[in-house]
TrEMBL record:
Residues 24-318 form the Tryptophan synthase beta chain-like PALP domain. The keyword Lyase applies. Keywords: Amino-acid biosynthesis, Lyase, Pyridoxal phosphate, Threonine biosynthesis. The lineage of its organism: Bacteria, Bacillati, Actinomycetota, Actinomycetes, Kitasatosporales. The keyword Thylakoid does not apply. It catalyses: O-phospho-L-homoserine + H2O = L-threonine + phosphate. Catalyzes the gamma-elimination of phosphate from L-phosphohomoserine and the beta-addition of water to produce L-threonine. One of its GO terms (biological process) is threonine biosynthetic process. Pathway: Amino-acid biosynthesis; L-threonine biosynthesis; L-threonine from L-aspartate: step 5/5. This is Threonine synthase. Its EC number is 4.2.3.1. It comes from Streptomyces fumanus. Signal peptide: none annotated.
Length: 351
């Protein structure tokens, strides 16, 4: 019997590792590519969801973190640090445990989902809540890694991008070629950078015949790339992408322009509508930021920008269990019944 070995072993020849790199892994990657029935009907396309919430800590961050922590360990680091809106910190905390390293995480005070905080806590990370937003946390994390013995594992660390590009490999390996369009949420813009790198590498080596158009979507209250300027006080219910000055801004523009793609915005209302549609009609529970990709696809389709007959992949980046408040909010309270089948049957509408 054998199982998926994690992205470093599965794609070793395409990653900057050597025989002496200690592989720190939770067997991340190998995530499901799920056909999306309702989205396919609505767009007239063949839409697939790349379900990254199925990774070991519940988000795509594990792909980059297995690389970042393995390389940090190879270089003899004893501690790592990251700024995070929650998922990177959860991943750094877990992989830090596997590596026997101290993980320090900087998060914006009061602005990370409870599930993510719980992960960082239970894995024993050293957590500082910063009186500021994600961009302030990243500034602080850079200053600490520049001046103290601690390695930075944010996606400004290029090996993070190397790990994350494997999601594009998996999609081509499954579909037999790149899709026509790849859609994803954009926050710090590392992931769109990584996918574009992965698609380009496969095309350059002839594994794929083409590259997709890259479509990125930011939340309207946190859309610096769309506006063309830094957003000082970013806001959105999708806390994972509440970022006003993305570190990989220029790479995101390159991905957009080189691929003939687009970077646009979706409102919180559109995000929540897509979030509910994914859960109630596709059976896929994602966190709000993840639904930005699907919200963007639906918006583009409504604007007549999606020609039918195309193959489209939407990455849904994180698991819905990370931030269940939005699932519970506004939903009807379950009714309480006695231990009585007749009453239960009546309440369930079976009679
Ligand atoms: N979706 C989720 C669930 C995320 O956690 C993030 C980023 C993104 C999308 C955007 O990806 O930053 O590469 O453009 N989360 C980071 C974090 C910022 O700290 O966990 P990006």
């Amino acid at each position: 019997t054998h199982q998926w070995r994690g992205i470093i072993e599965e794609y070793r020849d395409r990653l900057p590792v050597s025989a002496s790199t200690p592989v720190v892994t939770l067997r991340e990657g190998g995530t499901p590519l799920v056909p999306a029935q309702v989205l396919s009907e609505r767009t007239g396309c063949e839409v697939h969801l790349k379900v990254e919430g199925a990774n070991p800590t519940g988000s795509f961050k594990d792909r980059g973190m297995t690389m970042a922590i393995s390389k940090a360990k190879e270089e003899g680091a004893q501690a790592v640090i990251c700024a995070s809106t929650g998922n990177t910190s959860a991943s750094a905390a877990a992989y830090g445990v596997r590596a026997g390293m101290v993980s320090a995480v900087l998060v914006p005070q009061g602005k990370i989902a409870l599930g993510k905080m719980g992960q960082a806590l239970v894995h024993g990370a050293k957590i500082l809540q910063v009186d500021g937003n994600f961009d302030d946390c990243l500034t602080l994390a850079r200053a600490l890694s520049d001046n103290y013995p601690v390695a930075l594992v944010n996606s400004v660390n290029p090996v993070r991008i190397e790990g994350q590009k494997t999601a594009a490999f998996e999609i081509v390996d499954m579909l037999g070629d790149a899709p026509d369009i790849h859609v994803l949420p954009v926050g710090n813009a590392g992931n769109i950078t990584a996918y574009w790198k992965g698609y380009r590498e496969y095309a350059a080596d002839g594994v794929a015949a083409r590259t997709p158009r890259m479509w990125g979507f930011q939340a309207s209250g946190s859309a610096p790339i769309v506006r063309g300027e830094v957003v000082k006080d970013p806001s959105t219910i999708a806390t994972a992408i509440r970022i006003g000055n993305p570190a990989s801004w220029d790479f995101a523009l390159a991905a957009r322009d080189e691929s003939g793609g687009a970077i646009d915005e979706v409102t919180d209302r559109e995000i929540l509508r897509a979030y509910r549609l994914l859960a109630s009609q596709e059976g896929v529970f994602v966190e709000p930021a993840s639904a930005a990709s699907v919200a963007g696809l639906l918006k583009a389709a409504e604007q007549g920008k999606v020609d039918p007959g195309q193959t489209i992949v939407c990455t849904v980046t994180g698991n819905g269990l990370k931030d269940p408040d939005w699932a519970v909010a506004g939903a009807p309270q379950p009714v309480t019944v006695p231990v009585d089948a007749a009453t239960a049957a009546q309440r369930l509408g079976l009679v």
